[in-house]
Amino acid sequence: MTRLAHLLDHNEQFARDHTPVPLGLPTTRLILVTCLDHRIDPAAVLGLQPGDAPVIRNAGGRVTQSVIGDIAYLAFLAESLLGATGPLFEVAVLHHTQCGTGFLADPEFLRRATRATGVAEAVLSGSQVAEPDSTVREDVERLLASPLVPPTVSVSGHVYDIETGRVTTVTDARYPEEAATTGARRQ
């Protein structure tokens, strides 16, 4: 028996009322990048429904090269297969307070995590979210600076407070060309 078994009953109810969502742009024109922490349910926190927004999750909700590749691919799909033009979507980076990756700030914990996971210390350290207001700004700038993010994609940064349940905007949505005028964009 699997631990998922009792949840499959919920799936049966879901399937009875399910209406498939056709392939297309997300209805909110938003892509969410957030942490895999089980205390954060983007659908519940933001009121999302199927078809509203793709959610990319990883430890810390950090913008990695893999995340950048996913965003570039989604933009490519929107432009190539769906014929979308003009502003495609906004990428909302959502970090949170009390993130478990904050433990990686402790050098001994970081060394143990490196040994346990086989992931390089620099990579693990880069996923750390001890100060979410700061790391969300870093990740917004990383996306805006990437040559793989097209100028039709805007990026914003937000922090979810575990204690209050509130999301606050740290960085308003900006397009890569706006970052280029401030010198953040790479060629």
SS-based class: alpha/beta
Supply Rg: 18 Å
- Sheet-strand content, in percent, reads 15-25%
Query: Which stretches are poorly predicted, pLDDT < 50 over at least 5 residues?
Result: none
Mean pLDDT: 93
Strand order of the largest sheet: 2-1-3-4-5
Distance between the termini: 53 Å
SSE succession: HEHEHEHHHEEH
Reported for the largest beta sheet, the result is:
5 strands, mixed
Count of β-strands: 5
Instruction: Please give the count of helices.
Output: 7
In percent, how helical is the residue content?
25-40%
Shape from CA axes?
Answer: globular
What does the model show?
The chain is an alpha/beta fold and 187 residues long. Helices cover 38% and strands 18% of the residues. It has seven helices and five strands, in the order H-E-H-E-H-E-H-H-H-E-E-H. The chain has helices at residues 5-17, 42-46, 65-80, 107-117, 121-126, 132-145, 176-181; strands spanning 30-35, 55-58, 89-96, 153-160, 167-174. A five-stranded mixed β-sheet has the order 2-1-3-4-5. Strand 1, helix 2 (42-46) and strand 2 form a beta-alpha-beta unit. The longest helix has 16 residues, at 65-80.
